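Weekly sync, protein design subgroup
Attendees: M.S., D.O., the rotation student, P.L. (late)

Item 1: inverse folding check
M.S. brought a backbone from last month's batch and wanted to see whether the design step gives back something sensible before we order anything. D.O. pointed out we never logged the input encoding, so this time it goes straight into the notes. Structure tokens as presented (320 positions):
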């Protein structure tokens, strides 16, 4: 049943992805600037600019350019970078592991913070513990990522010299060196993510704690730990997992500030460089890959619902 459900969801995602390709192409088309001028410089004459535009296909009608680009995308070809003339797919393949490394470690740290904090805050509702956890989550929500990142760089890199100032080291080339290079960006992003995660889990647990089946389980004298694990936390994790999926999809292309501050060669930084240089194929390829990843993450999150709560049937509704 799981495989059937996933196939149906993937089939339903095809029109969404098609619409995404159309929106991406049109939005990128209206980015101000002229790629030909970026390549040749502002002093280039009109004839040279026209020749470059023709070689890049920029002088063709918009719908014709879109159909050509879409036909290449369907064959797995995202085109060539206007500036470097490298395959866009290769550039994304080099940048994506860096972003995934940052996002996965940051999400792991955030979950390790938010699950115990959100659980304790809900169980100690309206106590000083709840107030302390709520203050922490508010800090995570409010603190600007760029400010926290620069503060951590100043303290732990410039002053204490515990970790490298900037740059990325692959875990496959130097595992411990990679952990040191990723420590500050992961902490910066993890603190930011843990704020909303803690608030959602606390609110979800308070809602479940007030439900009748939990009250009955407590009245029957079941052990508090068993009630929390089997009845409360498991049900509260369903909306929490939704938040994780949304955050993960967003961060695939939204960790731009962190990647810029810590000089990480990820998708966000590649996208910014592509926008600045009017490298349309790079921007289009990145947005398409991120949007596809977002759709796939949402399908995976839906599938996880049935794992967390077997009463939820894949394909709609819950059994009685």
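Designed sequence read out in the meeting:
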């Amino acid at each position: 049943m799981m495989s059937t459900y996933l196939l149906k969801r993937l089939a339903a995602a095809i029109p969404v992805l098609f619409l995404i390709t159309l929106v991406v192409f049109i939005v990128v088309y209206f980015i101000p600037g002229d790629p030909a001028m970026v390549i040749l410089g502002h002093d280039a004459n009109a004839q040279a600019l026209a020749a470059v535009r023709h070689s890049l296909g920029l002088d063709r009608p918009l719908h014709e350019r879109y159909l050509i680009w879409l036909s290449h995308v369907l064959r797995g070809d995202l085109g060539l970078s206007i500036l470097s003339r490298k395959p866009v797919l290769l550039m994304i393949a080099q940048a994506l592991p860096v972003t995934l490394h940052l996002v996965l470690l940051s999400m792991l740290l955030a979950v390790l913070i938010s699950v115990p904090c959100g659980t304790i805050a809900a169980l100690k509702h309206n106590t000083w513990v709840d107030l302390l956890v709520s203050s922490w989550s508010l800090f995570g929500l409010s603190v600007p990522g760029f400010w926290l990142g620069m503060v951590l760089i100043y303290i732990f890199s410039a002053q204490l010299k515990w970790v490298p100032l900037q740059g990325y080291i692959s875990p496959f080339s130097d595992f411990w060196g990679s952990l040191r290079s990723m420590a500050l960006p992961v902490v910066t992003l993890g603190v930011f993510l843990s704020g909303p995660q803690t608030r959602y889990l606390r609110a979800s647990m308070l809602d479940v704690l007030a439900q009748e089946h939990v009250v009955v389980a407590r009245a029957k004298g079941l052990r508090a730990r068993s009630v929390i694990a089997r009845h409360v936390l498991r049900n509260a994790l369903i909306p929490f997992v939704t938040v994780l999926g949304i955050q993960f999809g967003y961060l695939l292309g939204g960790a731009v500030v962190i990647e810029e501050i810590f000089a990480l060669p990820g998708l966000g930084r590649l996208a910014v460089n592509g926008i600045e240089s009017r490298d349309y194929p790079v921007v289009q390829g990145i947005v398409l890959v991120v949007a596809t990843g977002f759709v796939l993450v949402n399908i995976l999150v839906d599938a996880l619902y049935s794992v967390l709560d077997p009463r939820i049937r894949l394909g709609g509704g819950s059994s009685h």
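Discussion: The radius of gyration is 24 Å. Confidence is low (pLDDT under 50) at residues 316-320.
Action: P.L. to compare against the previous round before Friday.
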